[in-house]
Structures
1.
Amino acid sequence: MRRIRKTAIILAVMLVIGAIGVTAFAAGGLLKIDDQYTDETMGNLNYSNGYAPIQTGDTVSVVLPLTLAGADTVTSDIVITPNLGDTATSPFVFKNYQQTGHLDASNRYVGRFTLTLKSNRYAGSYPIVFTVSYTATDETEPGATAAPVESSAASSVIMEQSFTVYASVDGADPNATPTPEPSATVEPTPPPRPQPKLIVSKYGTNPDVVQAGETFAVNVTLDNTSEKYDVKNLTVTYAGDGKSLLSADNANTQYIEKIKRGESADITFNMLSRLDSEPGIQTVTLTVGYEDSKATAFTLTESLLLQVTQPVSLEYDEPDIPQTANAGDTLPLNLNLFNTGRSKLYNVMVKIEAAGLLPEGSAFVGNMDAGTSGTAEMYVFVGTLAMSQGEEGNVQTDNGAEKYGYTNGAITITYEDEFGNPYSQEIPFDMQIEPPVISASAPEEEEEPVDTASQWWISVLIGAALIAAVVAVMVVRRKRKLKALGDGDGLD
């Protein structure tokens, strides 16, 4: 009867292992379990005819032979990390069992693991999940777990596969109820020991602001706040959401042997923010399994909130500004703007500044969603070089300055990102301001001697006319604003 039961267990393990191998390959991985490999440490059995992990005393030996599933090539070392399950129910002692190797000339790597068992374990069949990480050329099938690496290896991807093996372990009967001997004296149950509290006291990133499309480091400090008890066998696992934030390391688990009471430990791990990450707050989940001095298992789970930004990008068409203009002209100015980034731009505004140019005002474009365009429209009155616009929009005149000639200035574009950070871009330009053109033609008269005093008064009259024109423009503009606000009645 025992032989029949053992045969049934072996067949069940074979079916589970076979299904697991097919699942891993169907997911698009490059590796699979070599179900034909065997040696004396496997009891001369292979996976196809019933190999199962072997227990010897307080250890379990597991052999994991891996080989290529097809014609693809693995371009890096293979990192295998066993996941032993929940620290509270697992029969295994948690410590660093991670193993690194590479395929041999036969395209095979045989992982051999010796797992230590707890003394107070329960009998049963326990799953051991092996996570296999490696780098391969970017020719994987759809469905493979992959993340891009640095730009110098843009043609490579990081692959991850999982293989599950079940180990039968002896120990106490989990369903048995201990019965005290008749003569035994039942001692009072001692009060439970307080749990040693482990907390994340601080964390941060390097760089401080995470830029989409870049690799960054996360620094975490763990504090053992207990004044009496140490904590040991700490396994720290970190994971992003799998869409925006990914692990940039070969594995996402770290091991800490002990943190003494009242002390702390620092860990650092690397993450990758995808280029198409949404700007804003993203979450990294940190899970810490640990034990006290009596091997009582505890778990800490924390959410690390990271700020992810998208680079802003604003493009524009070159403005159509004439090289020459006459004093008294009014020039229309249209500037086409394009938000070519992935994040929204806020409070987009355009203004122009130059000696002799008096704009009607700044052009407010407003907010621009990613991938949209807008147009800044304004009118600019051409005065003289002696005229400029003050901070409050009033016209200022420098009587000692030249009236006509060369001027230069800039069109300034200002905007903000979703976090309120300001940005600005300048478009420099230059222009020649000429005297005003008098369209009315006068009859030809005999040339008279030049009257210097008369010319001076003519210049004064022209300047006064230009100032009057500017004032008229400003008055009309004010009346339009008041009318738009409903206060324009009675101003005519």
Note: The CA atoms of residues 415 and 421 lie 9 Å apart.
2.
Amino acid sequence: MRGPDQRSVAIIGAGIGGLAAAITLAAAGRPVVVLERAPAPGGKVAAAPLGGIAVDAGPGALSLRPVFEALFAAADTTLDRELQLARLPLLGRHLWPDGSLLDLPADPAAAEHAIGAFAGPAGARGYRDFMARAAKCWAALEKPFLTVQRPGALALGAQAGMRGLLGTSPFGTLWDALGEHFADPRLRQVFSRLSTYVGTSPLVAPATLMLVAQVEAGGLWAIEGGMARLPAAMARAAAAKGARFRHGADVAALRVAGGRIAGLTLRDGEAIEAGQVILNADPATLAAGHFGAAAAKAVPAMPAAKRSFSGIAWAMAGRAEGLDLPRLTVFHAAEAMAELAALTYRGRMPDQPSVTLWAQGRHGVAPPPEGREGLLALVSAPARADGRRMDPAVLATAEAAAFGAMARAGLAITRDATAVMTPADYEALAPGTGGALFGPAVQGWQAIFSRPAARTALPGLFLAGGATHPGAGLAMAAISGRLAAEAAMAERI
């Protein structure tokens, strides 16, 4: 029998996780084919052609740059050679209905000064102490948890050191931790956004999510020409090392023989043999049987109540005038707690949602560019267990609330072309998820151990993507792809 280093690997999905796996495997000399049903790589990092321009319809910035530098280095190139990156001077602008405004610089010292001017000396001290705590969380969890195959709770405690782990407040909630540092409710709103990176409420998210603040402090980068250039560059790097790509290849089922993966079958009936398969898709899609009954039990089914939030997104080509904008602006609702409770516990849209707006051609605070610009407005929405389309009246109400909030802040948006994505649209892209954008919801301290790991119960089948360990986001998805590739190469057959 051929050794495992000679086995062919089929990767389903050319999202960031699948591309990272392809680079890792191809760089190690493994034969790799990437099967993607879309005409271009990227998955959720997609660009919508609107009004004659390409508008990013997914993530708006890149963080944890060293993760991508290591991937491109493995392919004998560099991140800077493949892409033009611009570091964002602001992590975001925050606006409230009463006219309050906070620009949060990326530099922590400048951020402390800005927060002091906004909320007084107590706010500045709270921020300084909060960031020190976030740094401890990152130091305790990065190497023993986030960048390695998922350990259990006891193994993590042994690797991280129980004293260091307990210092991250793993049993508390993010909301409670924020309350320990920020008396000003507006600052709790600002930093409660850390929970949106994993699609859950700060009322139930573990305090360890403070580490996201440390990640942001390490820098956020815009990609010149749009975020979709990242997966295109990753695909080029993988192809240069020998990975093959087949676009328009829609996988219908995984094939199992002798108790392990034997290959897959495309929707058109073509059978492809593969000794191993890496599935870059939400494991809920697998568990729901959308890749065939033979592989459905490779991962546990995810209860609907355990899903992360979905969202409504308006990708637009047009003009945003009346306010000078940075790349990211958050229009906060007046009553954040009511919004969070509605989303988490009642499964309905809030009457006045907070709105996130990405002005994709702007880096620092800048006036509108000449001509059309790409804009992406987002609000959180509950995932839908039934997968039904959103009631048009509910969608219209959400749209009126979101754009009304931006208008009341002084922003006038002219839309020449718009594409709208709702939970039902996200469900159609990943059947069985209810449209959840971040996989399992991160609720409670045990949640970090409940995300599926790279290995599954079915020999030869491995998982990658933002719904698996270590979590959501571009860099975490890339780490998951590397971990899946390493697990495949380590499998003893």
Note: Residues 4-45+227-302+442-490 form a domain with the FAD/NAD(P)-binding domain fold (CATH 3.50.50.60).
